[in-house]
Amino acid sequence: MRVTVEAIGAAADGIARDEAGRPLFIPFALPGETVEAAPGPMRGEGRTAALITVEAPSPDRVAPPCPHFGICGGCAVQHWAPPAVAAWKAARVSEALSRAGFPGITVDPAVPSPPNTRRRADFALRRRSQQEGSGITVGFHARGSAEPFDMATCFVIDPRLLALVAPLRAMLAGLPALRRAGSAMVNLLDSGPDLWLRTDGVLTPADRTKLAAFAEANGIARIAWSKEGTRDVPEIAAQSGTVQANLSGVAVTPAPGAFLQATPHGEAAIVAAVLAGLPKRMPGKPRIIELHAGLGTLTFPLAARGRVDAFEGAPEAAAALHTAAGRAGARVRAERRDLVRQPLLPAELKGAAALVLDPPFAGAAEQAAILARSTVPRVIYVSCNPAALSRDLAPFARAPGWRVESAVAVDQFLWSTQVEAVVTLARGP
C-alpha cells in the first residue's frame, strides 16, 4: 500500500490512512513521507503496518547512530532529526495542556540530554540453552518482545554502565542462581555503580563469594539481590564501601534500585524549572509542601528557599530522605505517607506559599482535584506522562482563578517517546 504519512503518534508511529480511511500506524515512518507499507492486524480503530520502503523521505530523516536501532525496544526516534524530535515533544506537552482546558500555552522545544549520559539501566538476563549456543544474554528487551537481545553498544547509557555488560555476562555464566532468566538494575551513583541483581534461583554461599569478587573487580560498592518475580526487599549480597548519591550538595544513601532522575542534565533542568516556578516574593519563613519527594532531588534545592514539608510513600526513600536531611541540617520535615490512599486535605495545605507535586507515571488524580479546590496560591506539577498531566490539570481548568504561568518540556529520555514537563499553576490574572 502506497500512502503519505500525515502525522506522528504518541508511540512515534507514522500515521497514514488506509483505503477505508482508517488510521494506519507505521513504525519508523515520518510525517510528510510517501512510503510503501504492508497493512497488518487491527489496533483500536486503525491498523498496524510494516514499513517496506520510503519512496519520498522527509528532510528530517537521519541515519540512526546505533546498530541496534529497530531491534532494541528502548529507542524509537533515532531516525528523526533532533530539532524535529524536540518540537514534537514540546507539542505533546502543549496538547496535554490544551486537553486539560488550558489552550494556547507556548512550550519551547525540549532540550535533550546528551548521548551516553543516562545513569540508570535495567538489563534483562537470560541463560541460553545448549541448542542456542549456551552463554548469557545481557541487554535490553527487543522491540515488541519480552525477550532480551545481546547488547554490544548503546548511545544512551553512561559508558561506565555499558562497561559492566561484558564482565556481567562472564560472571553470570558461572552463577548457578541464574537458572534461566533474571535482571540486573544498575544506578550510577557518586560512589560508583550500585547493582541490584534478581535471579530465578537462590544464592548459595559460593555465589555470594563470586558476587563479592565481581564487585571488587568492577568498582561496585554494593550488590543487592532478590528472587526474580517476588516483591521481597532486596538483601545485601556484597558491599565493599559507602553507597552515596549527591543531591544538590547533600549526601543521600539510596536503597537498592532507588528512583533517580535519568540524567544529570535532566535533573538540573527539572530543578531549575521548579525553582523558577516559585513565587518571586515569599514571606519571611515560607512553607513549601512537596508531595512524592523521593530521595530529595527537589527537596534540598527547595529547602534553600524555605521550610519544606516533604511527603513520600516509599518507606526506604522516606527514611533515606529523613536521615540525609537531619545529617545536613536542612530545613526539611520528611514524613512517610501513602499519598495515593491518603492525599493531603485542604486543612493541611493552609499557609503554604507553594506546593510541588512530582507524582509517579500514573499521576495523582485525587490529590490534584483536592489542590484545585484548596487555598494554595501556587502549584508546580512535575509530570512524566502527558496523559496523566492532562487528566490531573483538568480540575484546575474547571476551578475559578487558576492559570498556567509557565510550562517547560524536559527531554532526558533521549530518542524515546517519553517527555517530561514542569507546569506552574498560579491563582490570579
From TrEMBL:
The record's listing under PANTHER family reads: 23S RRNA (URACIL(1939)-C(5))-METHYLTRANSFERASE RLMD (PTHR11061:SF49), RNA M5U METHYLTRANSFERASE (PTHR11061)
Q: Which UniProt keywords apply?
A: 4Fe-4S, Iron, Iron-sulfur, Metal-binding, Methyltransferase, S-adenosyl-L-methionine, Transferase
Q: Does the keyword rRNA-binding apply?
A: no
Annotated family: Belongs to the class I-like SAM-binding methyltransferase superfamily. RNA M5U methyltransferase family.
Q: Where is the active site?
A: 384
Which residues are S-adenosyl-L-methionine-binding?
261, 312, 358
The name of this protein is Class I SAM-dependent RNA methyltransferase
| InterPro entries in UniProt | NA-bd_OB-fold (IPR012340), SAM-dependent_MTases_sf (IPR029063), TRAM_dom (IPR002792), U5_MeTrfase_fam (IPR010280)
Instruction: Please list which residues make up the signal peptide.
Output: none
Supply one GO BP term: rRNA base methylation
* TRAM domain boundaries: 1-53
Superkingdom assignment: Bacteria
The record ties this protein, via SUPFAM superfamilies, to: S-adenosyl-L-methionine-dependent methyltransferases
Q: Offer an example of a GO molecular function term for this protein.
A: 4 iron, 4 sulfur cluster binding
Provenance organism: Roseomonas indoligenes
